[in-house]
Amino acid sequence: MGWRTPLVFWGVAAGAAVSLFLSDVPLFKKDVLIKIPVVSNYFIDKTPDSDKPF
């Protein structure tokens, strides 16, 4: 019980840090972030094709 709470805290913090740092990588965004129901609408690209330069 003594190690469980700190390990859970550091695990959640590490997962949040990885998600923050990799949120601009298209592969991570497509494979991970869009599949999370709470945050998927934030990461879906709604820019029309006519406004994208490439």
From TrEMBL:
The GO cellular component terms are: mitochondrion
Q: What is the lineage of its organism?
A: Eukaryota, Fungi, Dikarya, Basidiomycota, Agaricomycotina
- TM helices/strands, residue ranges: none
Lineage: superkingdom:
Eukaryota
> Which named protein is this?
Ubiquinol-cytochrome c reductase subunit 10
In Pfam terms, one family for this protein is QCR10
Q: Name one GO biological process term.
A: mitochondrial electron transport, ubiquinol to cytochrome c
Task: State the PANTHER family in the record.
Answer: CYTOCHROME B-C1 COMPLEX SUBUNIT 10, CYTOCHROME B-C1 COMPLEX SUBUNIT 10, MITOCHONDRIAL
